[in-house]
């Protein structure tokens, strides 16, 4: 007996999707109260980065998942802003979870990074899951702070050279 394989997700740029559909999906995945979460304070009023933000479409051409990435910075004690990219939310409709959509979205965002100038990626997420598949770790974030409540062990970073990371600072919106 053969098992049905998970569908291969179709990914498209998020800016090709009606923003109202994206908001409805985020509300279903995270509840409308999501806007009170610390991650929203970290990224502030910035627009997501279109080149790193995607939508997953199922075989029936329905929106089933999204990923958004945001310009943020870790501001150190000397007032220097260290640019980073905040990954998330990674959202998949509850009834579609476990089918590979989230993995495809995160992999696409990482693959879209500029290899000549890869900024550190930061996220609030499950260290075992995001560490196992993409190398995110909380090993370098113990001295970092966020502008709201969070669990320190869930503050993750992915960077090729950890030596570029400040040991401490406040994560917040990137302002140029």
Automatic annotation (TrEMBL):
This is GNAT family N-acetyltransferase. Residues 9-168 form the N-acetyltransferase domain. Signal peptide: none annotated. CDD domains: NAT_SF. Pfam families: Acetyltransf_1.
């Amino acid at each position: 007996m053969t098992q049905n394989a998970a569908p291969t997700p179709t990914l498209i740029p998020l800016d090709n999707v009606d923003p109202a559909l994206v908001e409805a999906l985020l509300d279903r995945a995270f509840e409308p109260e999501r806007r009170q979460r610390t991650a929203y304070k970290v990224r502030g009023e910035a627009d997501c980065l279109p080149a790193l933000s995607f939508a997953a479409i199922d075989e029936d051409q329905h929106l089933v998942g999204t990923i958004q990435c945001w310009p943020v910075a870790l501001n150190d004690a000397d007032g220097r802003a260290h640019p980073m990219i905040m990954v998330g939310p990674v959202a998949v409709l509850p009834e579609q979870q476990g089918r590979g959509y989230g993995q495809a979205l995160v992999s696409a965002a990482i693959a879209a990074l500029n290899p000549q100038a890869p900024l550190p990626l930061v996220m609030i997420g499950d260290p075992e899951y995001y560490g196992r598949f993409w190398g995110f770790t909380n090993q370098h974030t113990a001295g970092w702070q966020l502008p709201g409540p969070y669990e320190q062990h869930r503050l993750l970073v992915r960077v090729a050279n950890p030596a570029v990371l400040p040991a401490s600072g406040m994560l917040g919106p990137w302002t140029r």
